[in-house]
């Protein structure tokens, strides 16, 4: 199913996106050495509840999973890049943390992800340069994908733009998981893999909402599934990064709905 949202629904999507962007910035500010991943999950639940919204993840149970996710946010540390299930782990300076959040507010969902080094630049020592390069590549790929999203363009234009940046940065690209349509539900058509051919795929139309999410691993394109049945890690144990925005296709191009807003206290 591909949804074409009305102007009123897109406006509601702006509110959802602002909420997601704000929560992620709040969590980034709070995530310091000693913070437990389960604390991050608890804070996320509180912030979502205070806004009168719903996490898209708690009851999320795709066919390949062993039951629902059961948490409000995905937390990936170092080699954990996607679907990171929060567990009893305390962050240390230099950890590369990825946070992925999808929320439903007033009937419209928004989805975004950020990656950052705990403790800031310099905290990871020799790993810091690698971590920052990974994050930078995903952020540049995301910007390129968004720039390629325009009405009457194709999803392949977005995929090609993302893949070009990641490959030119020296990374191998896994296309098993990528971006997707979003609207009244979190995951819907069309799929947006992180590499592809331009002028191919679904035609983009005004009123479509898309979640675009480049992710990359330092020295492999192969994933392995953690014992928790959810967390996807790099097969070699190398570091990873994941960046995502929800955008709306407008007559003028792409509007980012999940831009960071002021952190909450």
TrEMBL record:
Single GO BP term: proteolysis
Cofactor remark: Binds 2 divalent metal cations per subunit. Has a high-affinity and a low affinity metal-binding site. The true nature of the physiological cofactor is under debate. The enzyme is active with cobalt, zinc, manganese or divalent iron ions. Most likely, methionine aminopeptidases function as mononuclear Fe(2+)-metalloproteases under physiological conditions, and the catalytically relevant metal-binding site has been assigned to the histidine-containing high-affinity site.
Residues given in the record as a divalent metal cation 1 binding sites: 100, 111, 244
Broadest EC class assigned to this enzyme: hydrolase
Keywords: Aminopeptidase, Hydrolase, Metal-binding, Protease
InterPro entries (UniProt xref): Creatinase/aminopeptidase-like (IPR036005), Pept_M24 (IPR000994), Pept_M24_MAP (IPR001714), Pept_M24A_MAP1 (IPR002467)
The EC number(s) this enzyme carries: 3.4.11.18
Catalytic activity: Release of N-terminal amino acids, preferentially methionine, from peptides and arylamides
Residues binding a divalent metal cation 2: 111, 180, 213, 244
Reported cofactor(s): Co(2+); Zn(2+); Mn(2+); Fe(2+)
Cellular component terms per the entry's GO annotation: cytosol
One annotated GO molecular function: metal ion binding
Family to which the UniProt record says this protein belongs: Belongs to the peptidase M24A family. Methionine aminopeptidase type 1 subfamily.
Subunit structure: Monomer.
Alphabetical list of PANTHER family matching this protein: METHIONINE AMINOPEPTIDASE
Protein name: Methionine aminopeptidase
UniProt source species: Agrococcus baldri
